[in-house]
Automatic annotation (TrEMBL):
Residues 27-144 form the Gfo/Idh/MocA-like oxidoreductase N-terminal domain. Keywords: Signal. Residues 1-21 form the signal peptide. Gene3D superfamilies: Dihydrodipicolinate Reductase, domain 2, NAD(P)-binding Rossmann-like Domain. InterPro entries: Gfo/Idh/MocA-like_OxRdtase_N, Gfo/Idh/MocA_Oxidoreductases, GFO_IDH_MocA-like_dom, NAD(P)-bd_dom_sf. Residues 157-283 form the GFO/IDH/MocA-like oxidoreductase domain. This is Gfo/Idh/MocA family oxidoreductase. The lineage of its organism: Bacteria, Pseudomonadati, Bacteroidota, Flavobacteriia, Flavobacteriales.
Length: 368
């Protein structure tokens, strides 16, 4: 009886120990503070999934400003990734600097087995993305890309309805993203500096907001690559964006569908919305929470259902919860999930072709 009790106690103790170990927060390092989206992690409430252990930022003035605003100690701020990794040994890193530096982050982290999440887009070019992918696969790390629209409940609902055949076979998708322009909306000087640099950002609005539509379309099409990419860009605010485009239209053709992406720094009202058209109806994902579904009736008539959606369930409600869950092996991303590397390699192929098309003023054919 005593031995049976001892055995049962040991089993319970091992189970509790295993559970505690599994839920131990992932140690996260933040590389760069110049990206305006860094507030996402700096202002995040303390949870048991991720704990920020170090920051890399050479601009001490910027680091001090954000320290004053968000309350992290300046002792957490290091001058290099090597210094931070040696001091605090992060298990994962989130990149919040310029897009050009994403490759360098993976080059340092991957051989050390440190998982990486970067802000969209994955890279400044397909060449950079391919090097990052090779490193991630070689060293078996997770390499994820964060898009705000990945966490929109309306986009998930639209995807599900499309897969269920609610509006019939897909024929056209229109994705519109952007705002008045980084300078007009008052982003920080550090953020503006790299957003409007063709080297550090890979382009202007075509990269900054074109990536959203390319990412969503790759998800909707479950990894189908477009047959062709055609892009036209303009510079409507040369005084604010002298080195890069600030308005773009990108057309993607598929065997039986088309996508029109409209990334712009010239929208009078900020937006991230999507329209999906099938043979029987249309889905309008108007914003994060509001969505409409119209089913055709006759020539121009339709039956409409409106949705007001709440936030997605954890860990799919924000990037850091899902990052931790994926690292722990608790969550496996769906096929061509917007967050996934397989999706974002195709997204980068689309963006590269769009940039080439806009420069050459011709359609780029993609080999399938």
């Amino acid at each position: 009886m005593k031995n049976a009790f001892s055995l049962s106690f040991c089993v319970i103790l091992l189970t509790l120990t295993s559970t505690f170990a599994q839920k131990k927060p992932i140690k996260l390092g933040v590389v760069g503070l110049t990206h305006g989206h860094v507030g996402w992690i700096l202002s995040r409430e303390a949870k048991d999934d991720i704990i920020m252990v170090g920051i890399v930022e050479t601009n001490r003035d910027l680091a001090q400003r954000l320290s004053n605003k968000h309350g992290f100690p300046m002792e957490m701020v290091f001058n290099s990734m090597e210094e931070m990794i040696a001091a605090v040994k992060p298990e994962a890193v989130a990149g919040f600097g310029n897009i050009y530096d994403h490759l360098a982050i993976v080059e340092i982290c991957a051989p050390k087995g440190i998982h990486v999440m970067v802000e969209k887009p994955l890279a400044v070019s397909l060449e950079h993305a391919q090097k990052m992918e090779a490193l991630a696969k070689k060293h078996k790390i997770h390499l994820l890309t964060n898009y705000e629209t990945s966490w929109y409940p309306t986009n998930l609902k639209a995807y599900e309805l499309l897969q269920e055949g609610t509006i019939g076979d897909l024929r056209k998708v229109i994705v519109r993203d952007g705002h008045k322009g980084p300078k007009k909306i008052g982003v920080s000087a550090e953020f503006l500096n790299f957003l409007t640099d063709p080297i550090l950002n890979g382009g202007g609005a075509i990269m900054d907001f074109g990536c959203y539509g390319a990412n969503l379309m790759t998800w909707l099409q479950q990894g189908k690559r477009p047959n062709s990419v055609t892009a036209v860009t303009q510079q409507l605010q040369p005084e604010n964006n002298p080195k890069v485009d600030d308005d773009a239209t990108i057309i993607l053709t598929y065997d039986s569908a088309m996508a029109i992406l409209e990334p712009s720094w010239n929208w009078p009202i900020g937006r991230k919305d999507m329209e999906i058209y099938g043979l029987k109806g249309a889905i309008y994902a108007d914003n994060r929470h509001d969505m409409r579904v119209r089913i055709s009736e006759g020539y121009s008539g339709f039956k409409e259902e409106a949705f007001k959606l709440g936030e997605r369930d954890a860990p799919y409600d924000e990037p850091f919860s899902l990052f931790a869950s994926v690292i722990r092996g608790e969550t496996t991303l769906g096929s061509y999930d917007p967050y996934s590397l397989e999706n974002n390699m195709i997204t980068m192929e689309i963006l590269e072709a769009a940039v080439q098309s806009s420069k050459s003023q011709r359609t780029i054919q993609l080999k399938n």
